[in-house]
Amino acid sequence: MSIASVDVIVTSPGRNFVTLKITTSDGIVGWGDATLNGRELSVASYLSEHLASMLIGRDEDRIEDTWQYLYRGAYWRRGPVTMAAIAAVDMALWDIKAKKAGMPLYQLLGGASRDGVRVYAHASGTDFEALSNAITGYRELGFTAVRVQTGVPGLGQIYGVSAAGPGVRYDYEPAKRSGDRPAEETWDTRQYLNHMPGVFSKIREEFGTDLRILHDGHHRMSPIEAARFAKDVEPYDLFWLEDATPGEDQTALRLIRQHSTTPLAIGEVFNTVYDYQTLITERLIDYVRSAVTHTGGITAMKKLLDFAAIYGIRSGIHGPTDISPVGMAAALHLDLAIHNFGIQEYMPHNEQTLEVFQTSFTFDKGFLHPGDQPGLGVELDEQAAGAFEYTKAYLPVNRLLDGTVHDW
Ligand code: GCO
Ligand code: MG
C-alpha cells in the first residue's frame, strides 16, 4: 500500500484551522493538525505546494523514514512553518497506522500508564471577584487545576483575561479578527509585578492548598524581573510559572533557578528538541510545554519527552484552542502513554469546531481520556468544514505605556 492522495483543508469554525488529510491506496484516511495561529496559510501552502507531491506513492508505514526525509531533506531546518507541516504529516501517518492496527494510538505508544490525563482549565477575570467566580465555576465542573490570569489595575485588555464569566466553555480566544493588522495591547511589567503576588495570596486564602494553580508570564519579564517574581510567589505554591522570560533565551532560566524553587515551564513557541538542549541537560525547567502540532508531531515529541524523562522533567503539552482537536488528540494519546506525564492544558473548543471535528474524548472529574476508537479518534467532517471560510485573524501586538514594542 502507499499514499494515494494528500489534501489540505482550511476551515474557520470561529477560528482558523489547517488540517492535513492523507488517504492510502486502500482508502484509509489519516488526519494531521497543521494550525499555526496567525500564519495559517504559510503552512497550508508548504504542505500543498511542496510536501503533497513528495508524499504520493510513499509507503505510509515508514513514519520515521518519512519524518527524516522531510526534516533533513528540506535542508532548511526547524522553524514553526516547517515543523508544523512535518507534524501534520507525522500525525496523519500515526493515525493511519493505528487505524490499520485497529487500536487507539496510545496502545502503539506502549499502552496506558494511567487511567486519565489530569487537565488544567483557564480561569481568568478582569478583577479578583470575576477571577474567583471563574475558579469556583471550574471547580464545580470538576477541574483540580486552573491557570490563573487576571487584569492588572491601570492596564487595559491584557493576555489571558476573558470578558466572559465562569464555566463558559470557550471563554478566551487570543487571535483577533482585526482585519489586515493585529490588534494592539499595552503592558507595564512594574504594575504586574506589584499586583500578582497579592492575587495568589487571596486565592490560597479562599481556595486552600489542594488546588493546583498555574500562571503564564507570557514571555514578558526580563531575567531578573522573572527571578524576583518567582521568588515573591514561592509561598503560594504554584504548580508552575510558564514562559517567565522570552523562550529563545535558554540561559535566562539559570538566573530564575538561582533565586527560586517555583517550578518552571517553557516551550510553547519551540519547534525542536534543540530548543531545549540547555534547559533539559542543566535541569533549568520542570515542564516541557511544546505542542505536538508545532514540534514535528508524535515521533519528535515522544523523543523529546523521553529525553526530558532522563532529567526528571515532566510533560505539560500545549493545548489552547489554536491546537485543533486532531492536535489535542495526539497530545492526549502521548499523555496517557508516557511515564513522565505532568499535566495537560485543556481549553475546550467551541460547538462549531466540534461539529467540524468529531472527537471521542471523555472528561471525568478533571481528567480527560482520548477514547478507544482506532487511530487518533478524531474525524473531520469535510462538508461541515466547507461552511466556514478562512478569515484573517492575528495575535495582538504588545506595547509598553511609552509605545515601545514588547513581547506579547
Ligand atoms: C497557553 C498559550 C496560548 C498562546 C496561544 C498563541 O499557554 O495556552 O500561552 O494562550 O497565547 O497559543 O497562539
Ligand atoms: Mg502559554
Describe the protein in words.
This protein is an alpha/beta fold. It folds into 2 domains: 3-103, Enolase-like, N-terminal domain (Enolase-like, domain 1, 2-Layer Sandwich); 108-373, TIM Barrel (Alpha-Beta Barrel). 36% of the residues lie in helices and 19% in strands. It has 13 helices and 18 strands. It has helices at 40-55, 63-73, 80-101, 105-108, 128-140, 189-207, 223-232, 252-259, 277-281, 297-310, 325-337, 351-356, 382-386, and strands at 3-11, 17-24, 29-33, 117-125, 145-150, 184-187, 212-216, 240-242, 264-266, 287-288, 314-315, 344-345, 357-359, 362-364, 367-369, 378-380, 397-400, 405-406. Strands 4, 5, 7, 8, 9, 10, 11, 12, 14 and 15 form a 10-stranded mixed beta sheet that branches. A hairpin with a 2-residue loop joins strand 14 (362-364) and strand 15. The longest helix is centred in the N-terminal third of the chain and has 22 residues, at 80-101. 49% of the residues are buried. The model has no long low-confidence stretch (mean pLDDT 96). Bound molecules: D-gluconic acid and magnesium ion. Residues 37, 174, 216, 218, 268, 320, 322, 345, 395 line the site of D-gluconic acid (GCO).
CATH class of the largest domain: Alpha Beta
CATH superfamily of the largest domain: Enolase-like C-terminal domain
Low-confidence stretches: none
Whole-number count of domains: 2
- Count of extended strands: 18
If classified by CATH, what would the architecture of the largest domain be? Alpha-Beta Barrel
Helix content: 25-40%
Bound molecules: D-gluconic acid, magnesium ion
Q: Distance N terminus to C terminus?
A: 46 Å
Query: Beta-strand level of the residues, as a percent range?
Result: 15-25%
Number of helices: 13
Query: Mean of the pLDDT scores?
Result: 96
Shape: globular
The CATH topology of the largest domain comes to TIM Barrel
Q: Please outline the major beta sheet.
A: 10 strands, mixed
